[in-house]
Amino acid sequence: xxxxxKTPPVRTHQGDFHWDGVEVLKYKQEGxxxxxxxxxxxxxxxxxxxxxxxxxxxxxxxxxxxxxxxxVHAVMVIRGAGRCIIGDKSYDLKLHDLVNxxxxxxxxxxxxxxxxxxxxxxxxxxRDRPQLPMQEDLVKLGxxxxx
Amino acid sequence: xxxxxKTPPVRTHQGDFHWDGVEVLKYKQEGxxxxxxxxxxxxxxxxxxxxxxxxxxxxxxxxxxxxxxxxVHAVMVIRGAGRCIIGDKSYDLKLHDLVNxxxxxxxxxxxxxxxxxxxxxxxxxxRDRPQLPMQEDLVKLGxxxxx
Lengths: 147, 147
Description:
The structure is a homodimer. Helices cover 8% and strands 45% of the residues of chain A. The first copy, chain A, has one helix and twelve strands. Chain A has one helix spanning 135-146, and strands spanning 10-11, 13-15, 18-19, 25-26, 36-44, 51-63, 73-80, 82-86, 89-93, 98-101, 107-111, 117-124. In chain A, the strands form three sheets. Chain A has a six-stranded antiparallel sheet, with no helix packed on it. Chain A has a three-stranded antiparallel sheet with strand order 9-8-11, with no helix packed on it. Chain A is globular, with a radius of gyration of 15 Å. The N and C termini of chain A lie far apart (38 Å).
């Protein structure tokens, strides 16, 4: 995990949602779970801090992994538009909307077909690993995913 | 402290940096410390979560209290422009810049004269109270504050 003791006081936004000294990372290892056109940047990831703030960029038409976990997501959209699935509902998302993903709740973020979706996501530094849906979960969720 | 178990999954941005169900609060009690034209909104403040995400709005020409504390601030500008004092330096701030305030470091945020400054600030849920500067600290900081 990143050591933020060397993080400078101000890291400038270089434009286009890239920052001084912030690396653009793979969202997940390829093949570990289904997703499309997502990157991850850890904006604040000090191991001594109890939470992390990450920035996720979903390209137009892309989507994050459908997953759930014990830990909570606290999200703010800071770019573009799209929608999210939280539990058994789908919600439209636009700039600066807030999303609260409760524990063990299926969730997925989709960029709009012609707009990216960029969002901040605050998570606890110590957190459980995501669970992927089984076939029976997908059947239950099918109606939402098809909309 | 707020109980987020009743927080809906999506809280819509109503425009102008106000959100569904998010109250605009006083920055601090009047007279508790010097500041000018600042409000506070707790976007994510669940007592069970290890960190909080707040939004601070500083009106044009306004400024936050000059203070320091053991806990770290992780900040992103999401509106307008201004500058911040961190330790013994002053930094210009613009949209989406990141600010990291280390432990026990004097800091203050100033909006530009003709632009507001709005920023997100992530802090640990359990944190120490801010310390205000003594006369000797102000003398040391004087040169920075006058710039």
